[in-house]
Amino acid sequence: LSICRRKHALQDVRKAITDFKALPEAHRAMLPNFYAQQTTVMKCIDVNYMFILHMLHDVADMFLPPELEEEAGEDDAACKTEQCDITEKKGSGSTTTSDKVNESDCENTDDKNTREKCKNLSISSDQDHHSHKSPNRKFTNGPTDTGEGLTMGDMDRVYTTLRQYVRDWAAEGAGEREKCYRPIIDAVTSRYPDGKLVEILVPGAGLGRLAFDFASLGYNSEGNEFSMYMLIGANYILNKMTGPGMVHLYPWATTSTNNLKHMDRIARVNVPDVDTTKIPQGTRFGMSAGDFLEVYGKQKNRFDVVASSFFLDTAHNIVEYLQTIYQILKPGGRLISLGPLLFHYAGMSDQISIEIPWEDVEEIMEKIGFVMEENKDISDVPYIQNTKSMLRVFYDCKFFVAQKPAL
Fold first, then answer.
1. What is the SS3 assignment for 105?
2. Range scoring the smallest mean pLDDT among 57-66, 309-318, 369-378
3. What is the spatial distance between Cα 295 and Cα 144, in angstroms, rounded to a whole number?
C-alpha cells in the first residue's frame, strides 16, 4: 500500500505538470516557479513514503500470535510501566532480520521471493478486526492477513492517518487537542485526583494520544481502536519512538487546493511532540485491537471511566454502544464524552445506521440508567485541521458526563 500511495500521489503531481504544459506560453511565463514547486512537492511525498515504510517495518510483529498469549502473561509482571516492545517475541510466522527487504527492492523487482516479502509491507483492510486478548500489552491479538486490491478509500485512510499525526502527536495540533481532549481530561482529573487505582478506557483511540495522556498522568489507561491504519500508526509512535521530534513528515503535501502560500502545502511537522516512553512507574497502559462491541460486549463492571472523543457517532446503533458502555462501567463509573452526531454510516445503503438527534440520545441514556452530571455545548471544535488552509470545518459538539449509579 505504501508504494501504491506514493505512486498515486506522484500521479497527481505529474497531472498538474501536464496540465501546466498545456497552458499558453504567456500564461506559463506568469508562473515561473511552478516547476520548482512541483519538484519540492514530489520530494515531500517521497519523505512521507519513507515515513510509511518505517511504520510498516515491524508490522508483522505488532500483534502476538495466539500461541504466545500464555507466555505474554508471564512477561507482563516485568512490564511495570507497559513499555515492553511487542517485537521482543516472535511467532513461527514472524519475519526475522534476514528475511526483511529494503524498501527500494519493492519498487521494481522481477524476483518472486522479493515480491512475496514486499507483500508484508501492505496494510490489511480497515474491515479486518480481531477480539481483544491480553489487556496488559501494548497491542493485543489482531489481523494477520493482508488485503488484495486497493481503492480510493484505502488511499484516503492513509492520508487521514498521516494527518492524524498532526492532531495527536505534533505541536501544531496542540490547539485542536485543547478543544477535543482537554475538557475530557479536566473532567477526569477533577473527579479522580488520584489516578493510581482508576481504570480508564478510551474507545476510538485513533493514534493513542488521549489514552497516552491519561497514562502519563498516572491513570491506568487502555485505548481501543478498530482501524488497522490507526493501529499501525499508534504502534509506531508508542513503541518505536524513544524521544520527541524523532521523525518528520509533510501531511499536506498532497493537498493542492485552498492554499494561501506554497509553503503552507509543504509545511514540515515533527513528531512526536512528547517523549512517549515517559509513563509513571506502575501505570498500566495498552491498546486493544478490534470492534468495540466485539471486544467489550461480554465484559462487566471493569472501568471507572469511559472517555470518548468523537466516538459515539461511529456506531451503527448508538443504543448498543451506550448499553455496552453502561455495562462495562463499574458502579459509580462515568461516561465522559465530547463529539458531534455525524453518524459515520449515514447514507451508506449497504450499512445499518441509526441516526437520531441529541434529545433522543439523552432520553436513551436515562432509560439505560445513566444520571447526567454535566451537559454543555462546546463550539468551533476542529477535527484534523490544517490551520493555514482556506477551507476548515468546525463542529458544535456536545460535552457531557453521565454516571452509572453506585450500588
1. helix
2. 57-66
3. 17
